[in-house]
Write a structure and sequence with these properties.
The chain has about 210 residues and is an alpha/beta fold. Strands 3-2-1-4-5-7-6 form a seven-stranded mixed β-sheet, sandwiched between helices. It has helices at about 5-25, 25-35, 55-60, 75-85, 125-135, 150-160, 170-180, and strands at about 45-50, 70-75, 95, 110-115, 135-145, 185-195, 200-205. It contains seven helices and seven strands. The chain has a single domain (about 5-205), classed as Rossmann fold (3-Layer(aba) Sandwich), CATH 3.40.50.150. The model has no long low-confidence stretch (mean pLDDT about 90). Helices cover about 40% and strands about 25% of the residues.
């Protein structure tokens, strides 16, 4: 993925890193909780948190008694620094973006992304890269804003005028189309409010087993 397309996202989150968890605490708690409820992780699985930010999801997973093996990747060095300060050294973190993930093919059983989908300038390319790093039978879980909710469409209309990092939000039908076009199977997309008035969706899909 083109570095020029990612520069606004990196700059935005380098600037916000120090206040991000405090400013968006309610939203982070709600979306992390909703994603965890849909992950269905199994002991020993290798999980990549894509766009891990300050490490909110990884911190929750570390606390689980049957925690999977965890990795995180993010565009922002400042966000990664916050994550590093709150995670054990056994959780590796890497600088990278969804279009060129710094991992060999077939590295992970699960790739999860919370609140980064609407920043991907080329989602078709991104989904192919995610598919590359997943093992046969591996799962993808994406939680993001949902354009089927009026509040999200209004917010996007405002955000687009002030935030050059923002790309677009998707409704359930378009999200499903993108995942299926990437060759992913067992696609399911669930929408819900978390927290009000935010309309969210979590999409799950699987790489076909060989």
């Amino acid at each position: 993925m083109r570095n020029s397309a990612n520069a606004p996202v990196r700059q935005t989150y380098d600037r916000l890193a120090a206040v991000y968890d405090r400013r968006w605490a309610r939203y982070i708690r709600a979306t992390t909780r909703a994603t965890l409820a849909r992950l269905a992780l199994r002991p020993g699985e290798q999980l990549l948190d894509l766009g891990c930010g300050t490490g909110a999801l990884l911190r929750e997973l570390v606390l689980e008694s049957a925690a999977p093996r965890l990795c995180g990747v993010d565009l922002s060095l400042a966000m990664l620094a916050c994550a590093r300060a709150s995670l054990p050294p056994a959780v590796p973190l890497a600088l990278g973006d969804v279009g060129a993930l710094p991992y060999p093919s077939g590295s992970f059983d699960v790739v999860v992304s919370i609140s980064s989908f609407h920043y991907w300038p080329h989602p078709e390319e991104a989904l192919q890269e995610i598919r590359r790093v997943l093992r046969p039978g591996g799962r993808l879980v994406i939680t993001d804003w949902c354009a089927d909710f009026l509040a999200c469409r209004i917010c996007e209309w405002i955000v687009r005028r002030f935030d050059h990092a923002h790309q677009r939000i998707y409704g359930k039908a378009r999200c499903r189309q993108l995942l299926e076009a990437a060759g992913l199977a067992e696609v399911a997309v669930e929408s819900y409010s978390a927290p009000w008035p935010w309309g969210m969706m979590t999409a799950t899909a699987r790489v076909a087993a060989t």
